[in-house]
């Protein structure tokens, strides 16, 4: 791509009166001798670190005519370029630009002299600028033609090129570079953007750029640099220093020099005050001093901000010139970084130093600057920064009002930001008296389960809101009240109060804009979880499950991860209470995994997922793992006022103790010890069963039966365990009544069917009907094997041992309930004639139709098409057939059905 040349200006000037031009006499056009230090490559100190990755990049840059090394003061630009130039086999002309070079004749005279000194021009070569104020077009064209004739390029390095501010010189330099062709490679080392059309060079792929991000030291390079200074730091400490300095070369070197004098370098570099160090001296000298008063004032004021844009900066300075000043500062690499979309941030060390100077120059301004920022950020919708600056400025009513008005009070409970927000509001004093401030206090107290404080603050906020004149802005505050009411209802075990909160919230949602509700899905998810937990406590399992399922499957990303995992844990408990240990285990594992993936600082609730896993482990008689899981939940933050998990823990612990032979301790642990407005039927029933079983184990059957008063069929798992105790106490009729009252309706799982079968088997065995007892035990073994349910058999008593010793039943129990060869996953039970008679299997007509087609190797889709039903219907029939045949795979189902004569 052709690049346009510059327009020439003057001819070569006259001689100095001696018959020789200034160049020929060894002086510049002003008659002063050339300063040889400007042509010398800067020397590298002994502690200089050669960075190979940057040298490789500079070597690759030789393929383009122009290289730009652009970085802030102290970024290591000059030493890097000098180190690279010293290793080149090409002629290198080095020139350090100075302020006086803005006169074209002086600048070009020094360029000509640098080319002569490196051997690129002969000592007696004709032509050199003689007039300080200008240079002729003919001379520049002659130089370009001379360079273009070289076989190898000359490397011309112009260091500190940011001092060149004359656009005429820039046009002339572009002319020479363009017409020199491959004979010249120009390297500009600068802090600012040079006055060259860089966009054209980029478009033509004729420009190589090395900027601040690439010049920054990596942690590995920083570690090597520190070691050159005699400072040895561990990896994390080095990385922390790199973060603080942004890999800035001068900052690292100055820090290393200072740390070398310390007795504890690691601690010094971690804690040193940037504003009282050589780093501060360097930055103030290189960046702040010499700036206009307006620029210094701007930098001092924005130092209270993590990031800023021109409008925000204007709000702090009360002027309107921030856009221009910030653009200039960024262009000059004045330790201000552009983040995109007109946002900037200060270098961390520079910001520390500026804030210290702000406190010295304007000691009372910092709080007001924070509040100006908070008000601007609130109007602009930047909530997290509004909260931070409102708190930093001491206006907690402003911060709390922003949180509540934005419907973001739920973030105090979501896990990911809860601790940070609680810490932010920890400094709120009694001077904050708005309803929003009391709502925040109530939320923080309820989150840590301080019910007295939380409920008191909630009541005060509600009273203030009731006395406030109606306005659209009150809806967000009242919806926040509804959320806290629902949480309070959950924690106090008061379902009616939770339902009222949900109804109020639904009404208030109509008064709020959809975009605000959509912005904070966590509020709705939290409220639904609280209401569902209260329903679960009350024993309204179906109602609770319906809402919990919606929350667990709801979108929302990280905002709703805590209510999602809490809902999954509650669903796992519901599955367990319904007698589905396998399903409960899968949900609990999913809840635990979701919380771990999200990086929640603490598990939701008291680790309800882990409690369910412990309960399943007890049912499988894996008592060691169960204890480990219970110990993990015991180490979690206290949640003693949350009835559902508290009762769940009592249930698991009491069963574990009972099965470990500690009957008295089990009876004591069975009481959930939670104060609730409403009694929980399932918690009471499970506690009664454990206390009854403890009495039975202690030889007090009458007392055991008495304790079962109130346990009914509406709690199927408890009912079958109570029936077992009734039979053991010699009351088979009472046991039969209990089993008859169990409401199956397809909602109860294997734990119920196994327990009921074993109770009926014992009644049959004790009445002399051994054949029926054997069939019932076989059915229980088939149902229990897939879930690995051992507890019902170990609780059954001595009567079952003779039956389990018989060949067919021993085979069903082998490998998982009784010692023997472990059965491979999916391996079918061998079924001889005795087993076939022992366990009668009845398949429906449609199940037989599906199995017949399965035997012909038809897919589910083909079977569905052949039977004119949906694929889901086929899968439902297959699942039912698998359960009846006690298999897990298609081939096993076909073989088992054939063995039983069903196909």
Determine Rg (CA atoms, Å).
41 Å
The N- to C-terminal Cα distance equals 82 Å
Q: What is the helical fraction, as a range of percent?
A: 55-70%
**Approximate strand percentage:** under 5%
| Number of DSSP helical runs | 47
- Label the overall shape: elongated
Structure, explained:
The structure is a single chain. This protein starts with 51 loop residues before the first helix and ends with a helix. It has 47 helices and seven strands. It is mostly helical. Helices cover 59% and strands 4% of the residues. The strands form two sheets. The chain has a five-stranded parallel beta sheet with strand order 2-3-4-1-5, sandwiched between helices. The chain has a two-stranded antiparallel ribbon with strand order 6-7. The model is unreliable at 1-20 and 821-839 (pLDDT under 50). The protein is elongated.
């Amino acid at each position: 791509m052709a690049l346009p040349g510059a327009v020439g200006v003057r001819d070569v000037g006259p001689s100095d009166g001696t018959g020789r031009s200034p160049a020929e006499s060894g002086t510049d056009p002003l008659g002063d001798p050339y300063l040889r230090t400007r042509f010398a490559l800067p020397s590298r100190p002994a502690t200089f670190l050669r960075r190979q990755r940057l040298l490789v990049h500079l070597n690759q840059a030789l393929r383009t005519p122009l290289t730009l090394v652009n970085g802030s003061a102290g970024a290591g630009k000059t030493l890097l370029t000098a180190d690279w130039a010293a290793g080149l086999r090409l002629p290198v002309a080095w020139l350090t630009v100075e302020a006086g070079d803005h006169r074209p004749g002086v600048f070009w005279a020094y360029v000509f002299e640098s080319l002569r000194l490196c051997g690129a021009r002969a000592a007696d070569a004709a032509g050199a600028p003689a007039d300080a104020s200008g240079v002729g077009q003919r001379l520049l064209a002659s130089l370009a033609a001379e360079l273009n004739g070289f076989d190898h390029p000359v490397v011309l390095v112009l260091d500190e090129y940011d001092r060149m501010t004359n656009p005429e010189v820039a046009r002339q330099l572009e002319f020479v570079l363009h017409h020199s062709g491959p004979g010249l490679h120009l390297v500009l080392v600068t802090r600012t953007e040079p006055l060259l059309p860089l966009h054209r060079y980029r478009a033509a792929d004729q420009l190589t750029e090395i900027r601040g991000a690439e010049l920054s030291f990596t942690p590995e390079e920083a570690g090597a640099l520190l070691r050159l200074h005699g400072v040895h730091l561990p990896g994390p400490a080095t990385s922390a220093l790199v973060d603080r300095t942004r890999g800035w070369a001068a900052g690292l070197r100055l820090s290393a020099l200072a740390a070398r004098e310390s007795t504890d370098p690691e601690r010094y570099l971690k804690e040193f005050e940037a504003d009282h160090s050589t780093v501060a001296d360097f930055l103030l000298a290189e960046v702040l001093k010499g700036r206009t008063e307006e620029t210094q004032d701007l930098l001092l004021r924005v130092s209270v901000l993590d990031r800023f844009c021109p409008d925000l900066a204007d709000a702090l300075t009360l002027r309107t010139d921030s856009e221009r000043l910030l653009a200039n500062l960024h262009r000059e690499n004045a330790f201000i970084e552009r983040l995109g979309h007109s946002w900037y941030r200060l270098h961390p060390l520079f910001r520390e130093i500026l804030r210290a100077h702000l406190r010295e120059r304007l000691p009372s301004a910092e709080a007001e600057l924070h509040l100006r920022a908070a008000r601007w950020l609130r109007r602009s919708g930047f909530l997290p920064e509004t909260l931070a600056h409102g708190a930093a400025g001491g206006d907690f009513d402003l911060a709390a009002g922003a949180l509540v008005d934005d419907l973001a009070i739920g973030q105090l409970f979501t896990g990911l930001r809860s601790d940070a927000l609680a810490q932010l509001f920890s400094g709120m004093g009694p001077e904050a008296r708005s309803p929003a401030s009391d709502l925040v206090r109530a939320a923080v107290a309820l989150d840590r389960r301080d019910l007295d404080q939380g409920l008191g603050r909630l009541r005060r906020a509600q009273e203030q809101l009731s006395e406030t004149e109606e306005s659209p802005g009150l809806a967000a505050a009242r919806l926040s009240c509804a959320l806290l009411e629902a949480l309070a209802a959950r924690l106090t075990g008061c379902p009616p109060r939770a339902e009222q909160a949900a109804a109020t919230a639904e009404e208030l949602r109509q008064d709020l804009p959809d975009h605000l509700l959509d912005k904070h899905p966590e509020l709705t998810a939290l409220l639904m979880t609280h209401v569902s937990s209260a329903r679960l406590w009350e024993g309204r399992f179906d109602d609770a499950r319906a809402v919990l399922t919606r929350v667990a499957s709801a979108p929302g990303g990280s905002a709703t991860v805590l209510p999602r995992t809490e809902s999954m844990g509650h669903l796992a408990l519901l599955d367990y209470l319904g007698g589905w240990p396998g399903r409960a285990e899968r949900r609990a594992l999913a809840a635990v995994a979701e919380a771990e993936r999200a990086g929640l600082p603490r598990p939701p609730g008291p680790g309800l997922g882990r409690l369910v896993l412990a309960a399943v482990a007890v049912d499988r008689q894996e008592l060691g793992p169960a204890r480990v899981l219970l110990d993990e939940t015991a180490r979690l933050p206290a949640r003693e006022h949350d009835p559902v998990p508290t009762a769940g823990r009592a249930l698991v612990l009491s069963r574990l103790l009972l099965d470990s032979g500690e009957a008295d301790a089990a009876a004591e642990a069975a009481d959930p010890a939670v104060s609730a407005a409403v009694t929980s039927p399932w918690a009471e029933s499970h506690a009664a069963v454990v206390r009854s079983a403890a009495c039975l184990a202690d030889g007090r059957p009458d007392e055991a039966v008495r304790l079962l008063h109130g346990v009914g069929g509406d709690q199927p798992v408890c009912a079958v365990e109570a029936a077992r105790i009734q039979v053991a106490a010699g009351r088979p009729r009472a046991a039969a009544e209990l089993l008859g009252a169990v409401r199956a309706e397809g909602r109860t799982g294997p734990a119920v069917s196994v327990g009921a079968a074993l109770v009926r088997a014992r009644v049959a065995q004790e009445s002399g009907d051994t054949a029926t007892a054997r069939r019932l035990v076989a059915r229980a073994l088939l149902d229990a094997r897939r879930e690995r349910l051992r507890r019902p058999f170990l609780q059954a008593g001595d009567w079952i041992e003779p039956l389990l010793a018989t060949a067919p039943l021993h085979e069903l129990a082998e490998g998982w309930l009784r010692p023997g060869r472990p059965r491979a996953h999916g391996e079918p039970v061998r079924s001889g004639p005795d087993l076939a008679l022992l366990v009668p299997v009845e398949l429906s007509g449609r199940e037989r139709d599906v199995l017949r087609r399965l035997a012909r190797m038809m897919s589910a889709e083909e079977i569905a098409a052949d039977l004119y039903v949906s694929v889901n219907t086929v899968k439902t029939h297959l699942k039912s057939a698998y359960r009846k045949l006690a298999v897990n795979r298609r081939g096993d189902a076909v073989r088992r059905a054939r063995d039983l004569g069903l196909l």
